[in-house]
Write a structure and sequence with these properties.
three-stranded antiparallel beta sheet, hydrolase activity, lipid degradation, twelve-stranded mixed beta sheet, single chain
Amino acid sequence: MRERVHGWGAADHGRGLRTGVAVALAATAVLGGVGAAVAPATAVPAVAERQARAGLPQPTGPYAVGTTALRLVDRGRPDPWQPERARELMISLWYPATRPAHGDERARYMEPPAAEHFGGPDGAGVFNYRTDPGRTDWSGVRTHALRDAPALPATRPRPVVLYSAGLGDPRTWGTGLVEDLVSRGYLVVTVDHPYDASEVAFPDGRLATSVLPTLAGQPGLDIGALLRKALATRVADTRFVLDELAALRTDRRLPAALAGSLDLDRIGMVGHSAGGFTAAQAMHDDPRIKAGVNLDGQLHFPGPDGTGVQLSSVAEEGLDRPFLLMGTQSEDSGDYRGQPGWAAFWQHTRGWKADVTLLGSRHGSYTDAQSLLPQLARQGAVPEEAVRGDVGDVRPERAVLATRAYVGSFLDRWLRGHDDHLLDGPSSRFPEMRFES
């Protein structure tokens, strides 16, 4: 991992709260207290033969994939969750590379300490996706990327896409979509939000784990206030990453040819659940983001007493730039008419907009859960009913194909000027994707 330090200056899962704090509430009984949430990494035990294994779907584009990780520190901002510390983040840059990775060259999906926590009793693999603790070899999952590979030179800098995962999920949980976008020529930046994400592994061996389950279990909790704080932190993180990307264009510590590959005049953002809310709100607050995609994330908060709703400013005011809503058939989801925040956003948005719903899907269908969980279920590492609750009964390969196609079509149209007309209306290519109007 490389490092960059910013200088001084400047309900249960799939239901109810689409931002995912309901997951933290439901998880409190499972997790108990998470403590201060910063702990030294522990030794990872040898992988037992009985552990389940799974693989990510192959990228479909013509380019090989490279990746590199960076630590960023915002010295001018105390961490909202740990105010005695400056805010620090981990990001990964994913980019077209000069050659593909083979075998064990392929970068790990998760670093071993993070993988152990994710799949353990206190991790998001259990409390978000109901996998059996310790039954999956998460550190053995490989991406299709070559770590720190030289970037493939381009005649023009590449459009940049930020990716934000759902509340409690690590930045890796959308790798299947991210790698496919890179294979089609995008440069993607995945962002971890420490103390929100289940765990974040730092280069010095620290593992920052989520504080949200502990906070969600406090008596008299104002869940709306916790949600607003989480979203504000995520938006501030996103804007800080954008600031840092400008400086990274001249950073010689990056893999060869990568620094010159970032086109910061063509920035998009994609997020799932709380990450989708983050994408919309960050786009509202920061004009550098030109286009955005919300994968089944609410755009409102619960009211002060836990009932009713409070609209976000992006829902109340809308956007003047292109935005895509992608809903699922989870309870309180679906099209824009089924969510108060989406309905307000639809009414107030002046820019181009579209809304599609994946039939037979559930809240996890737009994430790596869609491809990984069915594989794990076949090996007994997650109950079949949990898989159906998380990803529904849509065929996994069709869900993956549809997600890639619609996100890619949207970004191509608004960041590259290439329109395949998939988002003009219903498509016979994807009968499982309902187009809303």
